[in-house]
Backbone:
């Protein structure tokens, strides 16, 4: 056998061994590849399941995000409404504040004016008090004088009443002494041309006179008041004659009478005349 053949045989053996090793390695690597593929497929399936779960969670989170976004939108709308209402309330409060400030300023001005007016009034009152203090002695003196005049007036009225009663009694006595037979109207020479009615049925009614101390009107009627009453012989419907001095003024009829005072209504007046305070009423007339 030649050397070349030996070399070829050796090379074939080496090639065969190498090829066997390669086949062994290839088979071994192919099994590893298959196991790796199975493992990869398993991992892929797990990843797909995890991806599905992740997608489900993502969908849930998206739904939650949508719900939260809706709530946020609602909250934003409410916030906008609250801001608008707050702005309106602030504007209303500002207007109210301005009005209150205006009213307060007006009240302060009015208070100042009232204080000034009060001060002026107090000063005026103080001046009036001084004047009143200065007038008090005069008022006291006038009151005393008025009291004296009132007492003198009462005394004068009492004297006048006594004189009237005396005149009445004298006229009654004269009338009794001068009564003609059969009864007639006897003239009297008294003041004012007064006459006294005389009758044969009995003694004549005594004459009474009084000064009218008040004149008033009631429903178109003229009322007079004088200090004679039932104790003086005055009765309801007693006819009276009104004189001013010696002049005849009119007639009156008693409506209300008390023991010492009477009220009569004027029934007739002389042309151009009217009854006045201070005129004389008498039970005897023209």
Residues:
């Amino acid at each position: 056998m030649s050397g070349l053949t030996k070399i070829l045989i050796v090379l074939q053996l080496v090639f065969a061994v190498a090829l066997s090793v390669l086949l062994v390695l290839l088979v071994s690597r192919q099994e590893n590849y298959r196991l790796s593929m199975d493992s990869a497929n398993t991992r892929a399936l797990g990843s797909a399941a995890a991806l599905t779960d992740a997608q489900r969670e993502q969908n849930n989170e998206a739904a939650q995000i949508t719900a939260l976004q809706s709530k946020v939108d609602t909250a934003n709308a409410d916030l906008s409404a609250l801001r608008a209402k707050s702005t309106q309330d602030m504007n209303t409060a500002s207007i109210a504040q301005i009005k209150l400030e205006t009213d307060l300023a007006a009240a302060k001005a009015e208070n100042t004016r009232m204080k000034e007016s009060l001060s002026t009034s107090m000063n005026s009152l103080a001046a009036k008090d001084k004047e009143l203090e200065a007038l008090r002695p005069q008022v006291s003196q006038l009151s005393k004088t008025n009291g004296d005049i009132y007492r003198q007036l009462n005394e004068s009225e009492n004297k006048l009443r006594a004189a009237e009663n005396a005149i009445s009694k004298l006229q009654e006595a004269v009338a009794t002494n001068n009564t003609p037979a059969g009864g007639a109207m006897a003239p009297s020479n008294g003041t004012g041309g007064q006459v006294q009615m005389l009758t044969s049925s009995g003694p004549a009614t005594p004459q009474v006179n009084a000064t009218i101390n008040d004149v008033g009107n009631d429903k178109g009627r003229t009322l007079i008041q004088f200090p004679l009453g039932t104790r003086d012989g005055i009765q309801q419907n007693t006819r009276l004659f009104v004189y001013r001095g010696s002049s005849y003024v009119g007639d009156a009829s008693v409506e209300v009478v008390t023991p010492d005072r009477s009220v009569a209504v004027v029934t007739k007046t002389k042309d151009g005349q009217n009854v006045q305070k201070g005129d004389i009423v008498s039970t005897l007339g023209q």
